[in-house]
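Re: [ENG-882] Designed sequences occasionally contain unexpected residues at chain ends

Forwarding the minimal case from QA. Structure tokens:
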């Protein structure tokens, strides 16, 4: 899950990380009062969930409150990488002497949290990682042992020029690390981490991504969720208890179990097709879930055929079959359904489907080939 910069800055503030004052507005007129409160000269920043706002024209300096209204008007409604700007953040315009970058990411390979820091901040860090990777210093942190403070100071000494700045940066990294671990983040980033006067570093931008699978234990974070991050289909699917991800192919997939769903998508690709979605109906038996799954898949006009692949364990094939029958009774399904149904109560399930004229495959590869041919 992603959050906006202003939300990340609020979280930073909770953790004692230095961020400036801010205001968030949705109407350009509101910029005047906000800018006056913030000291007149402000930076106006698009709040979207994608990076590179600066380059896209979504970050502008305003010289006074009137100018802030004009800049807010210019940014609100802007399209940045497919996201429409409906909120802008105003913050006192800082004078930037130097821009650093500080970030923490989860490295699955080494099972460590890796601190990345560079004196080449402000720029696109992904680009720097390609063009000049040696300029990014990496410091792996063992999650069980925590931060080795002496080693951390050693690393920061190579980047920050003065003892006072090294101390501030070390303090910030420790607080970012606490946030990362306590809130189950997957990325925490400050870019630019700016030198705003000779003695002071400040987070002028803030980015935090969270592990969706850990959100259940962070209701405070879940509350920050922004609907624009998820497609309406994904939001509805979640409400129905389905694990669903939209994709850009044309073969709808309904599968029980995430592993089998992944394998099914691989097979669809192998036989030359392209999945329209990932969908795991879950382990429990519930005809209603199948009905909801079919409804959500059919909202996508690209879908030309649907593959239902069930390997019943806890999931009972008769319940799945009842769900398919319910769906065909309630909705006018115009695309072919290809069904593979084996496992618990398969005889009962097949009998229910046979009565409705459906044929069922035993073999997954047969079913996948058939659905790919139907979709072509
Ligand atoms: P991003 O492009 O989405 O990462 O947005 P940022 O918040 O990082 O802003 C982009 C750039 O705008 C920064 O790298 C700075 O150079 C500049 N910027 C942001 N805030 C300020 C500010 O308060 N004062 C000045 N002078 N520049 C700023
Ligand atoms: Mn930035």
């Amino acid at each position: 899950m992603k959050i906006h910069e202003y939300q990340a800055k609020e979280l930073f503030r909770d953790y004692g990380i230095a961020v400036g004052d801010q205001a968030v507005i949705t109407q350009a007129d509101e910029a005047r009062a906000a800018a006056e409160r913030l000291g007149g000269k402000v930076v106006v920043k698009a709040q979207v969930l994608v990076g590179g706002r600066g380059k896209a024209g979504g970050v502008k300096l305003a010289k006074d409150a009137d100018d802030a209204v004009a800049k807010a008007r210019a940014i609100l409604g802007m399209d940045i990488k497919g996201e429409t700007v409906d909120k802008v953040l105003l913050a006192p315009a800082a004078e930037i002497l130097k821009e650093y970058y500080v970030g923490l990411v989860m490295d699955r390979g080494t099972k460590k949290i890796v601190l990345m820091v560079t004196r080449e901040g402000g720029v696109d860090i992904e680009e720097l990682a390609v063009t000049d990777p040696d300029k990014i210093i990496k410091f792996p942190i063992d999650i069980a042992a925590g931060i080795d403070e002496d080693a951390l100071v050693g690393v920061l000494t190579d980047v920050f020029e003065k003892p006072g700045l090294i101390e501030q940066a070390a303090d910030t990294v420790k607080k970012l690390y606490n946030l990362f671990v306590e809130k189950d983040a997957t990325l925490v980033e400050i870019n630019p981490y700016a030198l705003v006067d000779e003695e002071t570093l400040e987070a002028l931008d803030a980015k935090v991504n969270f592990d969706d699978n850990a959100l259940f234990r962070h209701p405070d974070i879940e509350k920050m969720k922004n609907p624009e991050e998820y497609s309406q289909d994904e939001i509805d699917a979640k409400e129905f208890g389905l694990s669903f991800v939209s994709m850009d192919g044309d073969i709808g997939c309904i599968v029980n179990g995430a592993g089998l769903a992944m394998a099914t998508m691989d097979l669809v690709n192998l036989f030359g097709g392209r999945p329209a979605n990932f969908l795991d109906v879950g382990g429990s038996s519930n005809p209603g879930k199948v009905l909801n799954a079919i409804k959500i898949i059919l909202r996508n006009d690209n879908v030309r055929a649907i593959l239902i692949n069930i390997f019943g364990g806890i999931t009972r094939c008769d319940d799945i079959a009842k769900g398919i029958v319910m769906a065909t009774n309630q909705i006018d399904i115009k695309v072919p359904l290809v069904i593979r149904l084996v496992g618990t109560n398969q005889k009962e399930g097949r009998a229910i489907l046979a009565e409705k004229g459906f044929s069922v495959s035993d073999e997954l590869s047969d079913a996948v080939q058939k659905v790919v041919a139907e979709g072509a």
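QA comment: On inspection the terminal residues look reasonable. Residues 163-182 form the longest helix (20 residues). Proposing we downgrade this to a documentation issue.
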